[in-house]
């Protein structure tokens, strides 16, 4: 028996025996009541940590390894103590003058407990407050070694990483599947110091200069008077900003596309956005853009589904990431680079590489894989790790340098500065999740939350009292040396270069690269978001912007808004599409896809069993849905029900199967007679909740299958058996076989009405 099992049994036994445990009183002392249910408190060895509970390997700022043990403290010892280590006999009752008397101020445990609780919250991130994270490893292919001397990109190198995904606009408790950009921030704990790649799932940004960041965020955040809407861009201030600052047009178009509502963090691309400068062992430099390519492909929700999920499971993305890792379906991305010659102009094929509203199409500069990221361990404690992790674009290692992108410059200030408010002082690098794995030997001293105990008396250089230590490294002993880039003679100005003024050709390229169904989604998104604005002037200005991208796009959105289409103020740019931008038309692995199997006591339970096994075999997740919870008896044994008609909703599933006649879940959902009583004689063919499940799955382009009488449920849901992506067969096995092929395409795209 495992220790976990033993402990669970013990709790169950104690609950049954209903007896008093030792914590109910100090033996021999009167006045302590026995609660009716007691916990087991007999001291015992702590349970071994779960596989995912070892903290990060850390090195203290003085270079001493601290290991996970120092970071892990509560829940690991036999006795409950105060923060000072004094053992406690009771943590449920305040110290009182008699059981009905006043609480005494001298209760130091009460005061310590409530004081600590009062300060449990820290300010949430001003942007990217809502996030989820995981530990993992980065395995370098060594293919970048010719362009960078960064050790973690060298051959045969494995580097521990921590990755945090986030939404941008919403507060910490907001929903996951809102239309927004997603953060994709990676901390590489390299042997040469920590490298942070603080990217997004969209390769461009709203603005070209960091000085506008407070403005764009003020515009995107809820309105300051009523503080609504939460985590939405569908409101006046956002659209006011992005239509007045037309450099935002490209990013906004990505947000309005399917990229704004990812299916899963595991199915998003990531981008470093800015152009960085790599330097190799010979000192040669290369300009570079970073990409993360998900092994599972890039997939999205459909808008109605995204909206439903925000109510049904606001933690959808967070849960998906944690579940996949716990199940051993480790998400993977390849890190890849686009490289460009480091010329004085810093342009490539006419594209300004310093303008963060530009991409370089993959067709012009191939995306070359340089390593593999695998996320394989969930954090043990959300606050300690996911909340306290502090990323910074200035956390660089030798071999990776910055460029003069003005957006990047402001970030280099902001990410340090914000931690002082958020993490309470300048020593946040000492928090376990932020500790470098390379030895640290700085001369930074004191400050709030100093947890290191520095030795020596001379934290300055040069010194003679500490033997001259620490010494400075040189380029040949691993020092981070900035590339000595020549700065041309210039006049101080507050201006953007002329090349930053093309705001429309790149969004047009994106639009032209989309498949018809993706364009339809973009039109729908603009129509929805602008339809939520109140100001006519903002809608009209948005139509002017759309007219600069494409007349069809402008006309369709205008029609949806009930406004006349705008005339373009200049002809649309002449650009080639980049097919790599489309998410449709390729086949991807289906690992971790969730298959709902609807059945009931009268269903084909042996068929369900066979299909479950086949689904698991294919690396996907089968979930049996039945009228009520518990188990169903099949000839070959019991079948566990994972979802009931009350808890299942289509959004959780990538495909839905109906195994036989699923039957009714509850009288409450059946037909009623004139007096409102259940009318046993006129039951509908299918439970309305199953009908809803199927009709939603159908509308959202998901694969659907049925056999052994399950067709009746399809009919009751208005799902035509001969529609694309609907498979009706003789047995579960044959239906699943055809369905598996459909899942590789993510959706049954033909089902979306285009141009209708
Ligand atoms: Fe950020 N950004 N940002 N950002 N950003 C923050 O730092 C900022 C930008 C990104 O999971 C903050 O620690 C400025 C681009 C991610 O902890 C803050 C500008 C990109 C995260 C900040 C930008 C990003 C942040 C808030 C304009 C993609 C979450 C909390 C120049 C390349 C990291 C914090 C995490 C977080 C500032 C623009 C990505 C305020 C000034 C472009 C993924 O410092």
UniProtKB/TrEMBL annotation:
Transmembrane segments: none annotated. The keyword Metal-binding applies. Residues 1-9 have a biased composition (Basic and acidic residues). Residues 81-469 form the Catalase core domain. Its EC number is 1.11.1.6. Belongs to the catalase family. HPII subfamily. This is Catalase. It comes from Streptomyces lannensis.
